[in-house]
Amino acid sequence: MVVSGTGKIHSAMSVAFLLNEFKNSIIDSSWILNFGTCGAPKVFSKIGESFLIHKITDEGSSKSVYPDILFKSPILESPLLTVDKPVFENETSELPDTLVDMEAFGFFQASRKFFSSDRIRIVKTVSDHFTKLESSRETNVSDKISRIIEDTIPKIHSILVIPVSRSAEIDLKPDETSAFLHIIEILRLSETETIQLKDWMIGYKIRTGNSPKQGLAILKSQNGILNSEKIGVKTREEGKKGLHALKQFYQS
């Protein structure tokens, strides 16, 4: 366990130090958890509610990363925005419409050097609605945060007890495999992209219970990717556009 401090740089440095120290102890069943508090719009969540994060966007670079959730989550899932400075409702004209923190993106980037994305889990608990937490005569900020965390421990535990999925035990059915192979042909995917696609499809199947073959319909619904006159993409740009559309679908 490590307490990183505030900000994605501190988070990344702390994780890199921790994992480098224990790199010889990491085995196939190992995984890493980031738990922390976050802000959220009032309409999005109440104080104390916890979420398993399936997408992290870095505000500074606009880059997004995706923890692969290859299990059915016992708590709600949500995307998350990592910012470089605190967001307060009285200091900005437009508030984010999602969960907001300052560490998760750095945590994920550093963790990816040691773990595949399905072995990185991030849980965030809402501590405020973009308002400054201040101490009072009755209680201080630390006590407020401690109470929020104490109340959410059972939800954190529900994530901790889920083992890493063994991919060999999970596979696609014949009709899903047919759709998988068809998508590979349509988008002209590389070997790395093919592996990514299969991981997304299996993760989607586990989390939702639905067939991932629906991805073909997603390709047909995206303008410029596939229509009645096209049997496949003609450029790498079209292929990447189609793969991105599938990623959004399978990991949403």
From TrEMBL:
Protein origin, superkingdom: Bacteria
Any single Gene Ontology cellular-component annotation: endospore-forming forespore
InterPro entries linked to this entry: Nucleoside_phosphorylase_sf, SPL
SUPFAM superfamilies assigned to the protein according to its UniProt record, in alphabetical order: Purine and uridine phosphorylases
The organism's taxonomic lineage, starting at the top: Bacteria, Pseudomonadati, Spirochaetota, Spirochaetia, Leptospirales
Gene Ontology process terms (BP): nucleoside metabolic process
Gene Ontology molecular function, alphabetical: 4 iron, 4 sulfur cluster binding; DNA photolyase activity; S-adenosyl-L-methionine binding
Name used for this protein in its record: Phosphorylase domain protein
